[in-house]
Amino acid sequence: MGNRVADGSEARVMQEDTSFEECPAGSEVEAFHQRIYRGLQEGLKSVQARHEEILALPMEARDADAKSFLVDYATVTQGLVQLLDPHVPYDQRLQLASSLQNLIMELQLL
Fold first, then answer.
1. Is residue 53 in a domain?
2. Would residue 7 count as lying in a domain?
3. SS3 content of the chain, % helix, strand, coil (to 5)
4. Rounded CA gap, 94 and 98, in Å?
5. What pTM was computed for the model?
6. Cβ(44)–Cβ(104) below 8 Å
7. How many domains does the chain have?
8. Residue 72 within a domain
9. Is 81 a domain residue?
10. Residues 6+ apart with CB under 8 A from 57
11. At what angle do helices 64-83 and 48-56 cross, to 10 degrees?
């Protein structure tokens, strides 16, 4: 059903879909989080060699990208610890995992 507009035609009004599937429960949700966690760990491992190279550089030899890399690497490492906390709600875990994935992609580009 639509609304009438000035020329007499009918304009369809888009409605936001607010129906969501039920969240997984029990072992299903834990298995899902473990897959996400393992994927993030693999992503972090893919940049570990670069992390070690930057740590080997003297502080004064590190450029802005290297410093940013170290900050993001530490953020991802801390985020992985938070993902293991069973008291963090489901939606916050997913949001955190998404932001960690974005940081890992940035690390891979630096």
1. yes
2. no
3. 65, 5, 30
4. 6
5. 0.70
6. yes
7. 1
8. yes
9. yes
10. 66
11. 130
